[in-house]
Design a protein that fits this description.
Elements lengths: L1 H7 L1 H22 L10 H10 L4 E5 L5 E4 L1 H7 L3 H4 L13 H12 L4 E8 L5 E12 L5 E10 L1 H15 L9 H18 L2 E9 L2 H8 L1 H18 L5 E6 L2 E9 L3 H15 L2 E3 L2 E3 L3 E8 L6 H17 L5 E3 L4
Parallel strand pairs: 11-12
Antiparallel strand pairs: 1-2, 1-5, 3-4, 4-5, 6-8, 6-11, 7-8, 9-10
Helix pairs in contact: 1-2, 2-3, 9-10, 10-11
């Protein structure tokens, strides 16, 4: 069943949820047509049946209080069933997800079947991602018996998705943002700057004498220089700024939310000094350095590609000046 749900996605959960609901409801109806054995009750059969389910099950009242929880639900939250019963379902909902949980619960109370992902919290506060299938249970005469939630643990899948997304947006060597994530952040930074009349500076960096490091000390030493350069750059900028590896020995620093373009010069000067310090290598010190080109939104361009192109051109002006310096886009 779990393998089927992973392959089928939402449709698999929907079929599974409806099937389980029908299983429980039909099972209850069947129990109503036979006499329990000595020492048994219809309640005993119902609890055994629900506790045998491979997914967590909650029965909720009109106020979203948990009337019943099966053993699997208790295992998922690492809490005893009697401690879970009586608490509201929102006790287990991640704070950022409460609005979604409230909306879906109200919708199911209106008779709609709901199927959605939700981040919950275990007893110790650890995240628990679940796929939820919910349905209102109605008995004879239209009496509402409660709302049933079936919870399928998808934490492992969400972690794989997060890791996969991280890999597609990060440079594998330095773990800095790659071009795709860089462009995405630049779009957001430019949008905010446009709304609030601020500036965004794009610094295009190219390490000086990096080829000599590879030729003299080997590519492993070159990788160590890149890692150290990435660390130094990240240590100098603010949390709201972006340091990305553009490719090879090229980096891009995006300074967001600047009050004036002159702030970029101050940072560029500091980065030139920072990368002028020798890099330690197994065969000795590696003198490198950096050339930096600067382009600023809005006066030098209004799009990520335009700003990067002009910052790159300005970087070559710094190279032509001998390296170890920065230059702005002509006219800046």
């Amino acid at each position: 069943m779990q393998a089927y749900m992973q392959m089928a996605g939402w449709e698999g959960l929907a079929v599974f949820g409806v099937a389980l609901f029908l299983f429980i409801v039909v099972g209850m109806a069947m129990l109503g047509h036979r006499e329990p054995c000595r020492g048994e009750s219809h309640n005993d059969y119902f609890r055994l049946m629900v506790d045998a389910a491979g997914e967590g099950i909650w029965l909720l009242d009109d106020s979203a209080n948990i009337l019943y929880a099966n053993h699997r639900a208790a295992e998922m939250f690492e809490i005893a069933t009697d401690e879970m019963v009586g608490k509201t379902l929102f006790h287990f909902v991640d704070g950022q997800e409460r609005g979604l949980a409230e909306s879906r619960f109200k919708s199911s109370r209106l008779g709609r079947d709901e199927h959605f992902e939700l981040r919950l919290r275990k007893r110790d506060g650890e995240s628990l991602w679940v796929l939820v299938a919910s349905r209102m249970l109605v008995g004879e005469g239209g009496k509402t018996l409660g709302t049933l939630w079936v919870l399928a643990d998808i934490s492992d899948r969400k972690e794989r998705e997060r890791f996969s997304g991280h890999l597609t947006q990060r440079d594998p060597l330095t773990d800095l943002p790659n071009r795709a994530l860089l462009f995405d952040r630049m779009v957001q930074d430019i949008g905010r700057a446009h709304r609030y009349d601020r500036h965004v500076a794009v610094l295009f960096l190219d390490l000086d004498r990096f080829k000599q490091v590879n030729d003299r000390f080997g590519h492993a030493a070159g990788d160590r220089v890149l890692l150290e350069a990435a660390r130094r750059l990240a240590s100098r900028v603010r949390r709201v700024d972006t340091v990305a590896r553009f490719g090879g020995d090229e980096f891009v620093v995006v300074l967001s939310d600047l009050a004036s373009p002159g702030e970029a010069d101050t940072v560029a000067r500091a980065l030139v000094d920072l990368l002028a310090e020798p890099f330690a290598g197994e065969g000795g010190e590696c003198p490198v350095g950096v050339s930096i080109g600067i382009a600023v939104f809005p006066k030098d361009g209004s799009s990520p590609s335009e700003l990067l192109e002009k910052a790159d051109a300005a970087m070559y002006l710094a190279k032509q000046a001998g390296g170890g310096c920065y230059r702005g886009w002509p006219g800046s």
